[in-house]
Each structure stands twice: as C-alpha cells, then as structure tokens.
Amino acid sequence: MALRAFDHIDTWVFDLDNTLYPHHVNLWQQVDARIGEFVSNWLNVTAEEARRIQKDYYLRYGTTMRGMMTEHGVRADDYLAYVHQIDHSPLEPNPAMGAAIARLPGRKLILTNGSTDHVDAVLARLGIGGHFEAVFDIIAAELEPKPAPQTYQRFLALHGVDPGKAAMFEDLARNLIVPHQLGMTTVLVVPDGTQEVVREDWELEGRDAAHVDHVTDDLTGFLQRLSQRT
After folding, report:
1. Banded pLDDT at 5 (limits 50, 70, 90)
2. pTM exceeds cut of 0.90
3. Would you list the DSSP string of 116-159?
4. Among 81-90, 104-113, 195-204, 213-222, whose mean pLDDT is lowest?
5. Which of 195, 144, 225 minimizes the C-alpha distance to 18?
C-alpha cells in the first residue's frame, strides 16, 4: 500500500513530549521520576515497587495517571500538579522549527496526554507557542489518554478536523494506530541515535509498522522539507 502524502493536508497535529523537542533532552525523564515519587508516596511502597506499578499502568492504561485514578482513586489535578513540577531549562529556543511550522499551510494543533500548563511551559522555552491554534490536553480528553479511540474522536469533533486532511506527528507508534485508521497521514518521530535516550523498549518500537507512513529523527528538517513542497 502506498504511503500517504502531504499535498492534501490542511491540519497539522503534533504530540508534545519527545516530539516537539528532541528525545535526548530527556525532559520526560524528570516527569518520569516525579511520577515514580507520586506513586511511591500515594501507595506507601518502595521506589522499586512504585516503578513496577508505574510502568505497568503506563502500558495498560495509556498513562500512569489513568491507572492510579482507576485503581486507587487519585484525583487528576493532584497528580498533574505534582508530576509537572520540573525544570524546563534543558529546552532551548528552536526558531528554525518555528519558522518551518509557520510555513505549513493550514492549522496547527497540539494533542497531548499532558496538561495545558506543561504545554505552555514547553512551548515558551521553545519559542514556538504562537504558531499553534489550540491545545487538546488530558483534561479536554476527559482524562482518557491516547491511544483510546474516543480521545481522538473528541479531539476531531471539538476542533472540526477532517482526519482525511490531517497529519499526526507522534513519538509513540501505538498512538498512531487510531489516527491512521481514521485516515490521517502519520509521522513517527524517533531518537536521532547520536545521544542516549531514556525510554522503555516498547516505546521505541513500531517504526516499521503498517500504520506509520513516515519516520524521522529530525523533525525540524522534516518540516522544512515539507514546507518547501506544500
């Protein structure tokens, strides 16, 4: 089957973490550590046991938060406020990416399992916040994270997006399954291979999957080439 192209795209949808900034920044590693602390404190278990629970819930529920809410009655506001208290200073401005995004024809949206506060902090550091029309975060998703099908449906309905004319950029291949089924052109953003990244093995899988139309380890360069063609 031919890979889907971009000449018909009028809406560009981006994940946030490990997508709009490089994997090797390991900003998510800070969030990951905060999640482990939250789980350990809430359940009164060792760091090792908290780590096991954290990763089990992440894999089964899409986010650790959803697992903690479902299994242990955690409030989303408490969880999000704690885990996103991180140092965003490793992020550096990326005017080249901003310029490439600005040149793409049509709307640009963010679809993330994080919170709007976290999105705002990241975009401010990158200096690209002004290029996005809206953010669809975990609260807008009614606390149902990607890859839940209903989350994508809510996103499309709320923002009036035609999936057949939309492209989705993501760092997790499993989060591209439903978008591809809906007709979106999918792009998997992978580590560039030159610096160490902190990820689970399953998080790095899927670049050869049928639901992945394109793969890039350089999102800025990929967008620059796209903006020249579209």
Report:
1. confident
2. no
3. HHHHHHHHHHHT-GGG-SEEE-TTTTTT--TT-HHHHHHHHHHH
4. 195-204
5. 195
